[in-house]
Amino acid sequence: MKIGIVLYPTFGGSGVVGTELGKALAKKGHQIHFITYSQPVRLGSFRENIFYHEVAVSDYPLFEYQPYETELTSKMVDVVKYEQLDLLHVHYAIPHASAAYMAKQILKSQGITIPYITTLHGTDITLVGKDPSFEPVITFCINESDAVTAVSESLKRDTYKHFNTTREIHVIPNFIAPTIGISNASAEVRQKYAKDGERILCHVSNFRKVKRVEDVVQIFAKVNQQLPSKLILAGDGPERYAAERLVRELKLCEKVIFLGKVRDTAHVLEISDLFLLPSETESFGLAALEAMAVGVPVVSSNTGGIPEVNKHGITGFLSDVGDIEDMAKNALEILTNPETLHKFKTQALEMSHEFDLVKILPMYEKIYFDLIKDVSK
Ligand code: GMT
Q1: Core-most of 48, 114, 283, 330, by most CB within 10 Å?
Q2: Cβ(286) to ligand 1 under 6 A?
Q3: Contact, 86 vs 117, CB < 8 A?
Q4: Of 155, 157, 168, 77, nearest to 117 (Cα)?
Q5: What is the pLDDT of residues 56-107, one digit of tens each?
């Protein structure tokens, strides 16, 4: 199949999922055309069956706001036509689903039929999408998509709750890409950050408010009072300064390492003992799954789709949003005793296999084949 994938090329989970999905499909022999405004961060160097089409964002002085959606639509029309794509798969509803709808209509007027599948990732529904300034468009696009998928049961429920749609939504969970795996250098790297006997806690995110990064620091402060440890924070975003300020106030500067944006987060995860994800909401929690995939247990909030990934008492623990006392207690329960830590690590790794790409990829392929079948009827 020839598939166009539209995504945000940044560090966000939806971009990671779209990119890794495209890479896996290309490996299976499908021809994949990424359409976005810059090279997706997880794309890597040249690969067979993978093509990248850049959406050039104009800089016309009349526009106070550049019409990215229009330029994306034109690029989609162009790529579908000249690369003879079979379907479009757009990740994140805003504005990708509405651009796909428009592209589909333009192509229809030229006698070309192109189905599009929309994958809902979370904030496009739970935070941004339900805002009245986007809601009518998102509702329309969900209803008009040829197929809709959501990354968790929780997100599917949220979509039905917030949008006036009865559209079938297929739940296809996020997955672990084969690039995730423990390297041999981890013990050496670990020495750079933590002394023998010190535990390493970590958090990876885009430091948005929804991630509650200050809770991460507070939880760590409580753990560190009882157990010598370090906290590694990977990523960057609007809440970084608040987190840095808190670290200074709590006199933890020697104990907390801000790495900034990291391309290969697996290297951070593999030297860690525990992953903290105290988010306000999280449709899935891909960062937690990536931690589990290298045998790192998770202490998280009990919200959105997280409990579908992090199993309470098995792969880590769940607490109410904002309950930093409970999260610190749970972290200590996992970290204090080496045998308990080993047990949780093993169970986290085992659970991550449930989300192996080998199991998830055929779910997307089935939807693709069904759509193409419908078009050729
Ligand atoms: O978490 C973010 O802010 C990034 C966002 C995105 O769209 O890239 O992540 C969402 O999609 C991920 C991939 O499906 C999910 O794992 C995240 O849970 C989800 N984020 C939220 O729901 C807050």
Answers
A1: 283
A2: yes
A3: no
A4: 168
A5: 987 877 887 888 999 999 999 999 999 999 999 999 988 999 999 999 999 9
- For residue 296 the two structure tokens come to 């790192």
Give CA–CA dist 259/261, Å, rounded.
Answer: 7
CA distance 118 to 96: 8
From the CA of 210, give the closest atom in ligand 1.
Answer: 23
**Domains by residue range for the chain, with CATH:** 2-174+357-376 (3.40.50.2000), 187-355 (3.40.50.2000)
pTM over 0.85: yes
Task: Judge if the beta carbon of residue 368 lies within 6 A of ligand 1.
Answer: no
- Angle in degrees, CA 224, 330, 217, rounded to 5: 40
Tell me the residue type at 117: I
CA distances to 68, 97, 110, 196, 363 from 74, rounded to whole Å, are 10, 14, 14, 57, 29
Number of the ligand 1 atom closest to the C-alpha atom of 279: 23
The whole-angstrom separation of Cα 205 and Cα 275 is 11
**Residues pairing with 35 in the sheet:** 6, 53
pLDDT tens digits, residue range 122-179? 877 777 766 778 889 989 999 999 999 999 999 999 999 988 888 999 999 999 986 5
105-114's contacts with Cβ under 8 Å and 24+ in sequence apart are 106/73, 106/77, 107/77, 107/80, 107/81, 110/81, 112/80, 112/81, 113/375, 114/80, 114/85, 114/86, 114/87, 114/88
Please tell me whether residue 219 adopts helix, strand or coil conformation.
helix
Nearest CA to ligand 1 atom 7: 14
Candidates 38, 30, 45; CA nearest to 89 is: 30
Ligand 1 atom, smallest distance to 174 CA: 14
